Amino acid sequence: MNTINSIFKKIPEMQLENEREKLRKSWQQLEEREREFREAEEFGRIHMLMTERIFPNPNQPRRKFDDETIIRLADSIRRYGILQPLTVRRIESEGVFGSLFEIVAGERRLRAAKLLGLQEIPCIILKVDSKKSAELAIIENIQRENLNLFEQASAIASLIDMYGLTQEEVARQLSTSQSFVANKLRILRLTVPEREKILKYGLTERHARALLRISSAEDRLRIIEYISVHSLNVAATEAYIDRFLTENASARKPRSPRKIVLKDIRIFYNSVDRAISVIKQAGIKVESERIDEENATVLTIRVPNIR
How far apart are CA 266 and CA 272, in angstroms? Predict the structure, then answer.
C-alpha cells in the first residue's frame, strides 16, 4: 500500500518533468529556427565587418606579398573604395558583429585596408568548414593567376596532399587538363636556390621545365646564370641544353680501341714484305717463308740474333 501511495505521489512530479522536457525541446526548436533565419539573412549579403576581427587563412598559397603592390592597392581603395568585398567564414560565433572570421579570399585587400587604417571592410560570409575554406582559397588564387609559377605549383600540391586528390580530380576542380597539373607539379623538383634565381631573372615556366632535363642541380644553376646573361628565350634555352647534354654524353663515353679493317689480305702480305725489305737493307739477314695450307697460310720470319 505504501508503495502504491508513493507512486501516486510521484505522478505529478513526472508530469511536470515531461512538461519541462517538452518546453526544452520547443525552445531548442525555436533557437534552431531563429539560427536558420539569421543565416538565411546573413549568407550571400554584404556585411561591414571589423578589420580587427578578420584573420588570414593559414592555407593561403601566396607566401610573399609585394609591399609596393599593397601600397598601390591601398591608394586605389583610398580613392575608389573596396570594389569587391572579401569572402570570409566565421570561426568563432558571438552573433554577426561579435564573431571572429577567417579569410577565404581577399587577403591583399585586407592588408591594404589595414594600411589605410580602415576600421571596417565589406565582406560576404560563406558557410564552409576549414577544409572547404582551404580548398576555395587555393583554387581562387590559382584561377586569379596572380601567383608566381612556384606558388601555383605548391598550391596544387597542397590540394593533392591535404585531401588525397588525384591529378585528374584537381584538374576537374580547376577546369583544366591533367597535363597542365602534371607540368605544374614537375617544376617542384627544382631546388630552392634554383627557384629563387628563376624568379629573380624573370624566367618562365617553360624555361624551368627545360632545365629538368639536366640531372645535376649544380649544372642547372650554372645554366640558369648563362640563360640570364645571354637573355635566351625558351627555344634558345632548349637548343643550348641539347648541346650541353650531347657534349657531356660524348665526354663520358669511353673510347673503344681503333680497329684496322683489312679488306684484302694481300695488303697485309705486301706490308710484311716491305718491312722485311727495309730490315735487309739495314744489313740484317732476314729469312721469310710462306706456305699456303688448306685452311690457313703459314708465314714464317727468321731474324738472326744480333750479338
Answer: 10
Q: Is 107 a catalytic residue?
A: yes
Beta strand spans in the chain (E) = 46-50, 54-55, 86-92, 100-105, 120-126, 287-292, 297-302
Q: Do 234 and 205 contact (CB within 8 A), yes or no?
A: no
Pairing status of strand 46-50 against strand 120-126: antiparallel
SS (H, E, C) 108-151: HHHHHHHHHCCCEEEEEEECCCHHHHHHHHHHHHHHHCCCCHHH
pLDDT digits (tens, 9 = 90+) for 72-122: 889 988 888 888 888 898 886 655 456 789 888 888 889 999 999 999 999
Q: Identity (one letter) of the amino acid at 104?
A: V
Q: Which residue out of 102, 107, 151, 205 is catalytically annotated?
A: 107
Class of residue 5 by CB neighbours under 10 A (exposed 0-12, middle 13-18, buried 19+): exposed
Within 10 angstroms of residue 93's Cβ, the number of other Cβ atoms is 11
The number of beta carbons lying within 10 Å of the beta carbon of residue 226 is 13
The CA distance from 138 to 104, in Å, is: 9
- The CATH code for residues 46-147 is 3.90.1530.30
What are residue 289's DSSP bridge partners? 300
Q: Which of 143, 139, 86, 137 is nearest to 111 (CA)?
A: 86
Strand partners, 126: 89
pLDDT band at 31 (very low <50, low <70, confident <90, very high): low
Q: Where are the domains of the chain?
A: 1-42, 46-147, 190-251, 265-302
